[in-house]
Amino acid sequence: MALEQIILIIILVLIAIFIWAVFKKVFKLLFYVGVILLLLITANIYFIYKDVADLKENFAISTKKVILVDNDKVITGFLLDGEVNFLTNEQISDFSSHLEDNAYEEILGESYKLMVFDLKILNDLDVEEIETEEGTITKEEAIAFLKSNADAGEKAALFGVILAEDILSSRNPLFFFSEFKKGNIVVYPETALFKTVKFIPVSFIKNTAKNIFEKTKEKAQTFILEEGK
Length: 229
Hints:
Layout: H1 3-58, E1 64-70, E2 73-80, E3 84-86, H2 89-100, H3 104-108, E4 113-118, E5 129-132, E6 135-138, H4 139-147, H5 152-167, H6 175-182, E7 185-188, H7 192-197, H8 206-228
Parallel strand pairs: 1-4
Antiparallel strand pairs: 1-2, 2-3, 4-7, 5-6
Helix pairs in contact: 1-8, 5-8
């Protein structure tokens, strides 16, 4: 065998050894990365499961502080817990100040959840008219009224109607989460489900949304009926 052939074989063997050594290191690295990712995904699924279970059990029956904002100013709000509890003018002023500092914990207080709705959400509603106790008004008229200097309780009552009939509507159970992804709704504290929704198609949680919000809609409708008495 020629010397050149021997040298070539030696070079090829050394290259093969080098490639195998590199491959083993890369494979080991990918293996550890895969294990870590699997553990993270498993943990996230576990926390989402616990969050969904908690929301199904407590979202409808626990006190939720609902506020409506326009240009980062609170224009009205109420406590959604089966009783009619409007925010006072003093609370509205205080919450507006806290909102400027993103101090959601201060606004939340003892409530289970804080939900902050931007008035822009009304532009995305799939209806043009809104049914109220006094009759039908257009979406534009509703927006104008909510922006006006009208009584905060009257504005809260109108927004309660919109919340029950359109935002938490069974016609489109994904509307809430779609608007959440857009940034038109803030939920505090933002637990695992809400964190995950930001990164996945909302269609993945259609059934979950129905289960969570159906009873909440009933509570909102109770709010409307109580206000109409």
